[in-house]
Every structure is written in structure tokens, then in C-alpha cells.
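In response to reviewer comment 3 from the previous cycle, which asked for concrete evidence that the modeling workflow produces usable outputs, we include below a single protein chain processed end to end. The sequence was submitted unchanged, and the resulting C-alpha cells are shown without manual editing.
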Amino acid sequence: MPKIQTFDVIIIGSGSAGFSAAEVARKAGASVCVVEHERLGGDCPNYACVPSKALLKTASVYRLANRARDYGVSVGSVSYNYDLVMKYRENVVQSITGGGTYGTRYEKIFRSLGIVVKIGKAKFIDEHTIEVKGENLIGKTFVIATGSVEFVPPIQGIDTLKYLLWKDAFRLKRQPKSLGIIGGGPVGCELATFFASFGTRVVLIQSASQVLHREDVEIAGLARKALESLGVEVVTNANVVEVVNGGGGVYGVNVDVGGNRTMHAVEQVVLAAGSRANTNGLGLEKLEVKIGSRGSVITTNEQRTSVSYIFAAGDVCGGMQFTHTAHHEGYVAGHNAALMAKKKQTTRMKIDERVVPRVTFLSTEVASVGMTQKEAKEALGKVLVGRYTFSALGRTATEHGSEGLIKIIAHPKTRKILGGHIIGERAGEVVHEIALAIYLNATIDKLAGMIHAFPSYSESVTAAANSAKLES
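The workflow returned the following C-alpha cells.
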């Protein structure tokens, strides 16, 4: 007979959503078990956010070193060691995870909270029981927080290649001479920025009409210029017809743009074409949990699935798929699962994702929150738009910084702020002032009237707000 343990809340997945769910459920007095089949902490600290940003920092330092003379500083011949760059990446990851087989820092945190951790793949074998490596675990409630896996598009010939998924690309032990990246979203653009900074020839292939297709059109256009300034060849409106193995370590990517076909020869092909929910093998179909597009688990605003005692949070639900939204959803799911398990009648929490800022780290940061100008115009007709270029800022002059642009979108009648979009230095920090303004239902006039320190990049906010005018 397999060993059986019972818990109030069983959480499948230990990433941002799972960790938050476990922590809040335990604080609510529930007995908690976390099941993880890879490394504790999930994708963000191990494979995605943390290591990618570490590598992008090394690229930034290298670019700055090559511009040292612009500041009157001589550093001699500038060079880099790719092996040491990757070693820096690994050191950063270990500083967060603690290293070890599964992440010793996370193991210590879970242990200190009194949370049981099981390593292995989970599968539902009945309504309240999952099996993990031959052990049966019974849960009063569950939180599905298994994240997402890379989506492999149905491209002719893709199965004949040793292509790279984006996680693999950020861990390459040898720098490729040339790289074809299929997908021009945040991940593809960040990959292109890193490798192009160190001299790899990069072709970035995007099916949409712009890179970063969810961003404001003007901002995305400047992002494309930033990529091209590094030597990245950007191909938009592109349909990848097929990929072929040309032999001799060369792959061909056949791209159709408006009826014109071009073959791009590259050493490696990277897929960065989005993701799908990681639900395969969980056995959710046995429980009749409703599933949406790309396998995503459908949830209510309480993060509850179609099965009342099963909750879900994070990338597995589709949605925005950010670490910060996963954390928020996990907190709600874990809290509500614990209340149900403990039979507490207090009011259930609901998610609040009205205001969610996001940042993409290129050679200059791209940050946004709320509605784009196009979205606001489609909804309202005329909208208030405030713009200001970073080149006019005192801080840009003192730092010999790169050019940038900030846009603030506001309602034409109420003058409440609807969105903010920035490309430029510290964009990821500055955008939070606009996010807070949206969260508090502030008007563009409030931002225009607030005193900002000089010289700072945040001055761009009040400058853009002061320039607002109606645009149709």
C-alpha cells in the first residue's frame, strides 16, 4: 500500500503563484504541501526573469564600456569572456535560489514556514487525491500553479531541427555566430538585445506588424530602432514558411513577407513564439476542470476553477503571464483555498488586476501600464495625449543618455489617466508613478502640477502631462 498523507491545501507548482499561495495558506493556519517536479521557485529565478536580466546587465556594462570615452574615461581595449558572462548569470541565480539540486534557499524557507515539499510530478487519481512518485497525497483543496511551457509553432521542418527554446538560449555554453529568433515579443527582443550586444548576428522574425505587439505603436517603433542600432535585422509581418537543415551547422529560415520570400541562414534557431499552459499529465480531465485556449485553466475572480475545491493561479490560467500578476493571483488562490479547507465563512478575496505595469529590458527599457493610444481612441474617439522626449531632460544630458519618449493617455472629459508608455532610461521605475495615478483615479492635471526633483528621469512625467492635448 502506498503511503498516504492528508493536507488542508496541496499546491502543485512552486513558482511565484505557488510560493505565494503556500505562504498565505500557511499563515491562515492551513496545513500545506507543495509539489514541484523541477527546481523550487519555478521559471522566474531559475530560467527566466532573474538569469535573463543578469545577462542583459552584462550586455549593458559591455556597451557602456565601449562608450567610456564619451565620458572622458579611458579603459583601454574592451573585451569580454563569454564563459565568465555565463558564470555571472549562474552566480546571480544561486544568490536567489541558494543553489543545490532543488534550491536550498527555498527549501529552508518552506521548512521554516512548516510547509511540506514533495519533489515529483503530480497526477490526480481521484477527486481529492494526487500521486507523486508512488505516494498518495489527499487534499481538502488544491491550487494548480504549474505555470506554462514554450509553445512550438507548427512550422514546416521544425521537427527536423535541433532548435532552441528560449530557456535554452539563455543558457548556451557557446556563443553562436548567428541566431534566428522566431517571435518578436518581450522574450525574443531581450534575447536579440543580449546576443547582438556581444556581436552575434541576429535575425528577429515577428509575425505581427511591430515588435512588442502589445505596446503603443510609437513606443514599439522606437524599440525596433533600438534593436536595429545594435545590428539586429528585424523582419515584421513575417510568415515563417519552413525551416531547413542546410548541413555544416547552418539552418535556413524561409520567411514570406507580403509574397516576397527570403531565406535567412543562421547557426541556431530559437523559438520565442509564446507559451501554453502546463497542464499535460495532471489528470484534470478526470475532474472535469474547464480548460480554455492553449490548455489554460479557466478561473473566476476568486481564482476558483469549475471544480469548487480546486483553485488555479499564474501562467497556467493564461492571462497576463507576469511574475507579479502570478504572485497576486497565487496570494488570492492560496487565501481562498485555506478558508475553504478550514471551513471559515469570512469573505473571499478577489483579484484586482486593473493596473498592471510591465517592463521589457532592451538596450533601453520599455515600460507601460494601462491603455495604449490606439485602444483609448477605439473606445473613446478623441483622447488626451501628452508626450515628452527624454533628450530634453537635464538628467539625459548629464548622463549622456539615450533618447527616449514618454506618452501619457487620459480621458478627454474626466481627464483621468488611462495609460502610460515609456521607452528610455529607468522607464521601469518611472512608469510606476503613472500606474499609481491610474490606481488612484488621478487626473492628468494632478501629475502636471506635482513638483519633481531636478535632474531626474521622473521629470518626464510632469513634462508630458503638461503637454497633453486632444488627438483624434
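The chain has three domains: 4-149+276-341, 158-273, 364-471. We consider this sufficient to address the reviewer's concern, and the full set will be provided in the supplementary archive.
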